[in-house]
Amino acid sequence: MDRSRRLPAWTSAFLLTCTCLSQPAWADDAQPCSSELLYSLGRQLGQEGWNVPDESDSRVIAAACKRWPDDPAQTVVAVAYLDSTDDAPPGERSPRLLLAKVEGAASTLRERYETRLEEDAATEVDSGSLWLDTARYHLAPGVRAFGVVFRSVARGASCPDGGFDDLLTLVVPDGGQLRPVFSTYLSQWTTVKGTSCVADSDFEVEASRLTLGIGPNRSNGYADLIVTSRVRNDFEDGKVLRTASETVRYDGTRYPFEEYSKFWQRQ
User: Fold this and answer.
1) N or C: less crowded end of the chain, CB within 10 Å?
2) Given 3-state DSSP classes, what are the helix, strand and coil percentages for the chain, each rounded to the nearest 5?
3) Closest to 153 in 3D by CA, of 232, 53, 240, 83
4) Global confidence as pTM
5) Which residues pair with 171 in a beta bridge?
């Protein structure tokens, strides 16, 4: 099945009305990083040209910063940045994604995790692509996770029959580093009837918005996660058709769960 992060640029007004991805509530929650914090963090990592995104000379293409709820002296940070040798155009770059905790006025780096975001037809980063989730993910005594949501701006396939976006990754502290333990797309959709590129009157999709909760039980020392889907018949204000939930148990290393899940789809 061809899954796309993005819907195509529909030529039909009917499809434009029915199938545009809605903006989640958190999209209006600004999480800017100061130029001083980014400069300090870049210097500690041996990087140059770190400034706020959209500055012409900045190697940072997306950034989000938020005070850590358990300690106002600490800040959690998500930064997508380019190596000094990466001058490829958008859609062909290999940006690094840094998740970190920094402390104090000097933004001293405490914990971090890094990975790559390889851009392609389905993945592209811009200045609004990152958002930090600091909900009460108390997974074990003294262990509080935080998350980053990545939203791609890539157009994706032209006629997909399903799609996904808003990739949430949860990380936990682990010996001075941060370790990812859970990942899934919060926004998902699938075609139920008809074809996406044809404005059939019976064209039908179902869209799922996932939320996470902490369960009452533990597995291998960590609290179970409860993933809940609210399924609608379009992407915005459609009627809630049903809800579905699934419990995910920690296996000692991570919470095994599909990034594109199917538990919410019709059987």
Assistant:
1) C
2) 5, 45, 45
3) 53
4) 0.87
5) 146, 180
Q: How many residues does the chain have?
A: 267
Task: Kindly tell me the sign of the dihedral angle through the C-alpha atoms of 100, 96, 257, 193.
Answer: positive
Q: Please give the average per-residue pLDDT across 45-57, as a whole number.
A: 90
CA distances from 140 to 145, 199, 246, 259 (A): 9, 50, 20, 23
Residue 134, Cβ neighbours under 10 Å: how many? 16
Is 38 strand, coil or helix? helix
Closest CA relative to residue 53, chosen from 31, 73, 24, 74: 31
Residue 224 is encoded by which pair of tokens?
A: 């179970």
Residue 158: C-alpha distances to residues 2, 129, 163 (Å): 10, 21, 11
3-state secondary structure of 37: helix
Categorize the per-residue pLDDT at 44 as very low, low, confident or very high, splitting at 50, 70 and 90. very high
pLDDT digits (tens, 9 = 90+) for 203-245: 788 999 999 999 999 999 999 999 999 999 876 667 888 999 9
Run of H or E including 14: helix 13-18
* pLDDT at site 16: 31
